[in-house]
């Protein structure tokens, strides 16, 4: 087993610095995802530049992991934004099959404002937004303020669903 080369040490040091800087500069949601990826690959929250005791094969494996990370779309801000937009679009397509009528932008705003770990809170929010959107008619712009106003209404989960269903039922009657 041959030891690590000087070039491999330099490459690991450089690539580790770049990767960790990307993690540090990432948006909050992106940072969580990147830390998850790094943890899955290395067992730590960030990459380590440690090379002591590595064989050339282990160093090559480490370089490969770093390279894969640095070339992944999710490690770039633009790539992350594109992935987020695609996921919002897919989620909205699913919601449309359930009868909801939100734009991708409105759904993205709801996702930013609501704790999505709770399905109840998420569905309450989209029910409130949809009801407010239908009730407002042509005056609805879907602005972050309008969405915040709709989401902060103090009613139960059940009442939020009923309100959305009533608004849908009355949509064509006005």
Describe it for me?
The protein is mainly alpha-helical and 174 residues long. The protein has two domains: 6-75; 88-173, no CATH class. 70% of the residues lie in helices and 0% in strands. The chain is built from eight helices and no strands. The chain has helices at residues 6-25, 28-42, 56-70, 77-97, 104-113, 119-136, 144-151, 157-170. Helix 1 runs parallel beside helix 3 (56-70) and helix 5 (104-113) crosses helix 6. The longest helix has 21 residues, at 77-97. The radius of gyration is 23 Å and the shape is rod-shaped.
Give the SSE map:
Blueprint: H1 6-25, H2 28-42, H3 56-70, H4 77-97, H5 104-113, H6 119-136, H7 144-151, H8 157-170
Helix pairs in contact: 1-3, 4-5, 5-6, 5-7, 6-7, 6-8
Oligomer: single chain
Give the tally of structural domains: 2
Return the string of H and E elements. HHHHHHHH
Largest sheet: none
The helical percent reads 55-70%
The percentage of residues in β strands lies in: under 5%
Q: How many distinct helices?
A: 8
Q: In terms of per-residue confidence, which ranges show pLDDT below 50 for 5 or more consecutive residues?
A: none
Task: Specify Rg, calculated over alpha carbons.
Answer: 23 Å
């Amino acid at each position: 087993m041959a030891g690590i080369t000087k070039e491999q040490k330099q490459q690991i040091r450089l690539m580790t610095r770049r990767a960790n800087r990307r993690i540090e500069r990432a948006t909050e949601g992106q940072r969580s995802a990147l830390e998850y990826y790094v943890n899955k690959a290395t067992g730590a929250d960030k990459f380590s530049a440690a090379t002591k005791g590595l064989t050339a094969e282990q160093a090559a494996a480490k370089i490969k992991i770093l390279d894969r990370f640095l070339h992944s779309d999710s490690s770039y801000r633009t790539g992350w934004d594109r992935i987020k937009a695609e996921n919002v679009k897919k989620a909205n397509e699913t919601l449309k099959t359930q009868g909801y009528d939100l734009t991708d932008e409105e759904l993205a705003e709801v996702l930013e404002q609501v704790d999505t770990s709770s399905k109840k809170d998420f569905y309450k929010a989209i029910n409130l937004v949809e009801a407010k959107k239908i009730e407002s008619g042509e005056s609805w712009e879907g602005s972050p303020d309008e969405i915040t106003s709709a989401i902060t209404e103090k009613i139960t989960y059940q009442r939020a669903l009923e309100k959305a269903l009533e608004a849908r039922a009355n949509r064509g009657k006005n």
